[in-house]
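Design job #97: recover the sequence.
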């Protein structure tokens, strides 16, 4: 009989352990529910993400080693899994969220590098060196005969005839390799995104909501190849005037760059949502402060985005190589030719003087808007992470304006021009991170937050 009972207990050991754990958890919940009213609520335990961020900052100020961002995000995700009103984008536990988040951040970084490489390709006038395009890609010329054939095709293009006439084969190889690298880097991104996506789908880590989002981003990324060729094709056509230099359509360049920015923003925001399902919120006072900051951050983000897109029209019209003075445009504050095109609307997208003036005004507006946001939020009761982000955004804006002016005065060298384009995306990244941090917490987290946070330091 004892052997039979022992056998039953052995077979059902895991079940009994589960019951024991459940009863222990129930007892613990009952005990904590009775004692909560008579004790002070610990804010760090109510919000894992906020608690770890706050404790990390406190440890840093005390000279201790703070918890890493990876640990903070993992703890936040794992403890938030059971909260009501919070829908996670990734299933499979904290390890799965870490893998998916790392993949998405890596994809966003790859897109960032694509934008910078595209800027370098444009600034070195390499974008029109390849006069055809295949969706699946092609091998580069590997023999002297193949190189000669590609060079002959390029010699038929308007750019060679009007800009690079007399170019030798070695110089052609440089611009060809630049454009080829840009195209193949984009195809590499497609593979790097698609393979892990398929794996995570098969493992069941991707929820329906996340799957739809990522499928849309993948489709937009695939469309970038067509948009890029559509843009390049416009530069292979004869210019309207014999005195005009061949260049791509500013409208198509703006569409190509805006699409790249949209893909990057989508990937970066989604990655943040995967690893940080809850914003840093340790008290209701900080939540109310974040809501006030958000009212300013949203319109400021819109201004930053519009300014970045206007930069695409500056690049498309080669407007950075005109009026290379600051703060005046030549000898005047406002050139006389800003409205010389008909209809009037064309001036804002095709007129070199108007496009550059617009970009100057928008950049100044961005600097003032971000400075104003910092001024009105400096005394608000908000999370230290939010304050740090606002300060970083102000600093990055100053750097970006300095890069823009330096690029203009230096007649757009490749180094400064590409750094200015990277700076625009960096500033946009900080605004995305700020807006993501300012999200409203889930209802379950709001219920558990104290009114204020007691801090040991001011």
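Job complete. Output follows.
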């Amino acid at each position: 009989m004892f052997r039979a009972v022992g056998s039953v207990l052995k077979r059902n050991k895991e079940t009994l352990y589960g019951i024991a754990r459940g009863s222990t958890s129930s007892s613990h919940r009952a005990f904590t529910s009775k004692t909560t009213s008579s004790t002070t609520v610990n804010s760090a335990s109510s919000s894992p993400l906020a608690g770890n961020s706050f404790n990390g900052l406190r440890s840093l100020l005390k000279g201790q080693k703070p918890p890493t961002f990876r640990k903070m995000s993992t703890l936040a995700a794992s403890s938030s899994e059971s909260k009501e009103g919070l829908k996670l984008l990734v299933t499979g536990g904290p390890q799965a969220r870490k893998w998916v988040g790392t993949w998405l951040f890596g994809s966003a970084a790859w897109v960032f590098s694509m934008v910078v490489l595209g800027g370098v390709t444009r600034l070195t006038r390499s974008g029109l060196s390849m006069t055809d395009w295949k969706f699946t890609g092609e091998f580069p010329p590997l023999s002297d005969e193949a190189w000669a054939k590609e060079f002959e095709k390029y010699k038929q293009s308007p750019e060679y005839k009007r800009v690079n006439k007399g170019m030798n084969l070695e110089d052609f190889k440089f611009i060809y390799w630049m454009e080829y690298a840009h195209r193949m880097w984009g195809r590499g991104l497609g593979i790097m995104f698609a393979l892990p996506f398929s794996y995570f789908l098969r493992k069941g880590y991707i929820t329906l909501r996340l799957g739809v989002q990522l499928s849309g981003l993948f489709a937009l990324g695939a469309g970038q190849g067509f948009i890029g060729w559509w843009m390049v094709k416009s530069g292979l056509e004869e210019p309207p005037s014999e005195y005009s230099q061949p260049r791509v359509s500013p409208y198509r360049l703006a569409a190509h760059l805006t699409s790249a920015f949209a893909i990057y923003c989508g990937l970066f925001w989604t990655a943040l949502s995967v690893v940080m399902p809850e914003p840093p919120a340790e008290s209701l006072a900080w939540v109310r402060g974040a809501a006030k900051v958000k009212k300013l951050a949203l319109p400021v983000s819109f201004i930053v985005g519009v300014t970045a897109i206007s930069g695409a029209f500056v690049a498309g019209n080669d407007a950075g190589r005109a009026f290379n003075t600051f703060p005046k445009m030549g000898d005047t504050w406002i050139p006389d030719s800003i409205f010389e095109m008909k209809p009037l609307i064309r001036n804002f997208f095709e007129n070199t003087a108007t496009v550059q003036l617009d970009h100057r005004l928008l950049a100044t507006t961005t600097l003032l808007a971000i400075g104003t946001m910092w001024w009105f939020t400096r005394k608000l009761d908000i999370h230290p992470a939010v304050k740090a982000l606002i300060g970083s955004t102000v600093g990055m804006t100053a750097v970006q304006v300095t890069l823009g002016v330096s690029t203009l005065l230096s007649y757009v060298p490749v180094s400064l021009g590409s750094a200015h384009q990277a700076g625009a995306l960096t500033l946009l990244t900080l605004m995305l991170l700020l807006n993501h941090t300012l999200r409203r917490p889930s209802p379950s987290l709001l219920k558990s937050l104290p009114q204020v946070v007691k801090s040991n330091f001011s």
